[in-house]
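thread from #wetlab-drylab

HS: before we spend reagent money on co-crystallization trials with phosphoric acid mono(formamide)ester, can we at least see a predicted complex? here's what I'd submit
DV: go for it
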Amino acid sequence: MVFHPKESFLTFRSLVLLTSANWAAIFRSMPIRGNSFLSVKQLHLQDLKSIFETACFFKKQFQLNKRFDDKVIGEGKEQKTVLMVFAEPSTRTRLSFQMACARLGIRSLIMDNLATSSVTKGETLEDTLLNVAAMKPDAIVVRYGQHPELDHVLANLGCPVVSAGIGTAEHPSQGLLDIMTMEENLGPLKGQKVLIVGDVLYSRVANSNMLLLKQLGAEIGFCTPEELAPKNADWADAKRFTDLKDGFKWASVVMALRMQKERHIGGLSIGSYRDQFRISSEHLDLLSSKGIILHPGPVIVGVDFTPDVLKDPRCKVLDQVTNGVFLRAAILAEVLELEVKIS
Ligand code: CP
């Protein structure tokens, strides 16, 4: 994974600090202010606290006044322009980044239909990104599948790049909005038990959640078909459930995932998946009254959930979507070096 440090990052003060510090730790803690945001590994606890504080402030302001742009200042703010390139389909992430720009009072432009782009004439995604960057946006938001060759390109676009979900590695803004929704309902997550159900192997959402939950001291469990169990060593400490009902008895948060059929090699029967892993009222009966159910979306009703699950008051799927706008506005404010007047 690549990052885009600002030249000014290495100030004299930080150089002095670096001489006595672990370089790897410093790299991990690189702040996203004025920089790219491609992995939740860039954020330390203090950064998380600050992002959630800003996102919650935006939410409160919006509930009170239907706006929060008046609380955000910065030189030439109205001229700031975020360019978005979505090479994979999206509803929530795409529109909530655009909505976040609108609510911040900045501009956004989007290319989300590559069928109308010059990719159809043979231009590579690498060249597409270089050309988009040549238009000098203030930041670029990107989503695409597996293109490891683009890692070095993202570092050299001359402006911060924000991941809107890249490959199967991470979906950092989704992970953050999921945590925001959990904390909103349960308070601090230390000691909370989070069960992740479904296609963990191919889910970039699950990876970002796992990294954040570990940092926040939550316990993680997963319940998946054998073929979709995580192989990454980061998951080694997670508790494995073979019976979904046992997982529901254990968990305070259940996060279901969509099967990423577009990434699967070889067929996995939807029918047998549904029989074992679809969440229904018989599972809800086992979840505590304070427990919550999440799903990053899109929910495939009938496969991931029976329809009644979406109507259960413990199901916070639409709250996740609402929080996504505020959370992404908080990320963009950092990346674009805007100042938020929190009061
Ligand atoms: N959660 C998520 O990434 O949804 P979209 O694919 O609709 O953006």
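DV: The pocket of phosphoric acid mono(formamide)ester is lined by residues 90-94, 165, 171, 174, 296-298 (CB under 6 Å).
HS: ok that's useful, forwarding to the group
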